[in-house]
Amino acid sequence: MTARITLATARRVLWQVRRDRRTLALLVAVPCLLLVLMRYVFYEEPRTFQHIGAPLCGLFPFILMFLVTSITMLRERTTGTLERLMTLPLVKLDVLTGYGIAFGLLATIQAGIVCAVGFLALGLNAPHGAWLVALLAVGNALLGMALGLFVSAFAQTEFQAVQFMPAVVFPQMLLCGLFVARDAMAPLLYDISWALPLTYAYEALQRATKPAALTTALLGDVVVIITATLAALALGAFTLRRRTT
Amino acid sequence: MNVSLEVARGSVTGLLGPSGCGKTTLMRAIVGVQARVEGEVMVLGLPAGEADLRRRVGYVTQAPAVYGDLTVEENLRYFARIVDVPRGRAADVSRTVGLAGRERQVVNSMSGGEQARVSLATALLNRPELLILDEPTVGLDPILRAELWKTFHELAEDGATLLVSSHVMDEAAACGALLLMREGAMLAQTTPAGLRSRTGEQDLGRAFLKVINERQAA
Questions:
Q1: Which of A199, B31, B55, B125 could form a disulfide bond with B59, CB atoms 3.0-4.6 angstroms apart?
Q2: DSSP-derived secondary structure for A172-190
Q3: Is this complex's ipTM strictly greater than 0.90?
């Protein structure tokens, strides 16, 4: 791995995003607007808003980075730039880490703004500090990025890539316990939920937004998130082939 | 596809044949990005696709492989960082492909021919010993085409080896050596003069047709 190439890749990805001002604005504005919307949907039920809205601040970056990465990576595959990169003196890890740095940086900005809106402006509660939620959000964003990278290999068009969001993200959102406690689900779904990375992302966020004292269980969740991210990255790297037909 | 061929160092070799005859597949095999290649492909004395070759072989695909949402300069700087050449090379190669003064333009806003030249420019950054160019002059006007062919010869004079594919036979005249392909097979390895004397045709397009007919008769 070469730091020169990794950083150049990160900068290149950020340049690309910067040129697309509308996407950049949407990345920040959409989650904030959704939070505001929820605040007034749950107008008479502030406890529900706290229960769903607070962890959601840390899940938005996961969803958006999944989408942004799967489409950016798909473009890289379909426009031939990936093939070009593979003929150059670099290793896959240079490209993947470059992407990680660029999207990690974007996720940090996004998480910072979303958490500021949620915890400062809309009155959500973060008993252990909003920074912890923001930090978890960045970790989740990297998980979303790694998954997006991997699934981009299975899409041929941007239409297909967009469909992976309801296919890969929505079921995990439903099963992670955000809307219904996991032990209230059908036993089979409960069992499946243990195998889904978002379950641990949600669990960690829940711990960070509930008043109960923090335990090492939070650390356990974080370890699972990191492991799942690395596993998805490894799978993603496997789909970046030097030789194709 | 089953072919056997050799390309001499420091030459401009034209790979000619109709669309779909296997030119791109052959070039991809030489660059080492084609999967399921059987047999032996040796490039600059090493097996094709060897890591060391990635800094010595430049490959320009038929469709421009550059970032459309970046400017010419941003593209060139990124690729310059990857192959580790000084920034100044970006200006050099833009001049080489006739895009001096256009560096600030976003690639997507350029014409197809211009985008192809940006793609070519990125491959010239580190002065590769072997340049594989897949139909680099498609869609370019005649003046630009002539200029690019001049550039190819200059690169060869500086010691580079070029393998250039085309489906336009009039470009064959500009090549030092010729490889004629059809339906996945290598019909002839010759030179423009050799092809003319062998077929008795001055026009290289007709000469190529004659070679095909001879083959079918045989």
A1: B31
A2: HHHHTTSSS-GGGS-HHHH
A3: no
